[in-house]
Amino acid sequence: MRAGGTPAAWRGDGVAPGWEAAFEAVPRSAFLPDVMWPYDMGRRRAVTVARSEAPESWRAFADADVPIVTQWDDGAHEGTSPGRVSTSSASMPSVVAAMLGDLRVADGDRVLEVGTGTGWNAALLSHRLGDDRVTTVEVEPAVAAAARGALERAGYRPTVLSGDGRAGHAARAPYDRVIATCGVREIPYAWVQQTAQGGVVLAPWGTHFGNGDAVVRLEVAGQCASGRFTRRVEFMKLRAQRTAVRHHDRVPPEGTAAAEASTTALTEGICSATRAGTAPS
Ligand SMILES: C[S@@+](CC[C@H](N)C(=O)[O-])C[C@H]1O[C@@H](n2cnc3c(N)ncnc32)[C@H](O)[C@@H]1O
Prior knowledge:
Elements: H1 20-25, E1 35-40, E2 45-46, E3 49-50, H2 55-63, E4 68-72, E5 86-90, H3 93-103, E6 111-114, H4 120-129, E7 134-138, H5 141-154, E8 159-162, E9 175-180, H6 189-193, E10 195-205, E11 213-221, E12 224-233, H7 247-250, H8 268-276
Parallel strand pairs: 6-7, 6-9, 7-8, 9-10
Antiparallel strand pairs: 1-2, 1-3, 1-4, 4-5, 10-11, 11-12
This protein binds S-adenosylmethionine (SAM).
S-adenosylmethionine is lined by residues 87-91, 114-115, 117-118, 120-121, 137-140, 143, 164-166, 181-182, 235-236, 238-240.
InterPro entries: PCMT, SAM-dependent_MTases_sf
Protein name: Protein-L-isoaspartate O-methyltransferase
GO molecular function: protein-L-isoaspartate (D-aspartate) O-methyltransferase activity
């Protein structure tokens, strides 16, 4: 029995043509756990919401245009308070819709998703393209198992694999579309190799100098993939590419005000002359 959709305010912003029926049929709420940690825009932090204790609040957050953390600290977290690092989530619905629009699928396309998470995006893809055309890979076995269960309860049976999505999944390649729903700092070349000629790799990409990403849409031609950025986003990162350098850990909150200052009498002219061996002694 497939779950019926509920209207959500964020859909007023528009869902790409061809995706309306999928968003209508597949509500995000069907993929959320009883205890979850939505981002509360007013309080600017993740809050704990338990369906058993606050069903109306749970439903309001499930239908709201906010990201919802569903796992902390790679599963090592215990209790119901938010953990340290969010490691799995249901992404912000407007971002999910925008990225599916960027993907520009056609009937019959075969898709690989990296980052199954709750399984909601895989369900939307399955509704649009058919179960047999969707493969999704999740690094965290418990998250993959929960997604598989939620997908089955909602009436969808895409191929859900547990493993490191950096390697893609060669056995079901070639794909017409590869979509990553975790941020990357480098595009794994396996994704390009497993994409059909003319196909697309879509991924949130960024640098190690910040947490932000931009969705890059790469078209595969020959051995290469090239393309443009479509929009700014921020995703939790592919496990092996989590940000190593975080500026805010190193820069004090007062900024440069407390920094040591020094000056030099050297000028560019003196430096050039020194290099040329003509500096005045
Ligand atoms: C933002 S969530 C994905 C949201 C998901 N698409 C949905 O519809 O709910 C990112 C997911 O990527 C997974 N992930 C991180 N690194 C991965 C990797 N190397 N391979 C596969 N999945 C990975 C995380 O465990 C997490 O579940």
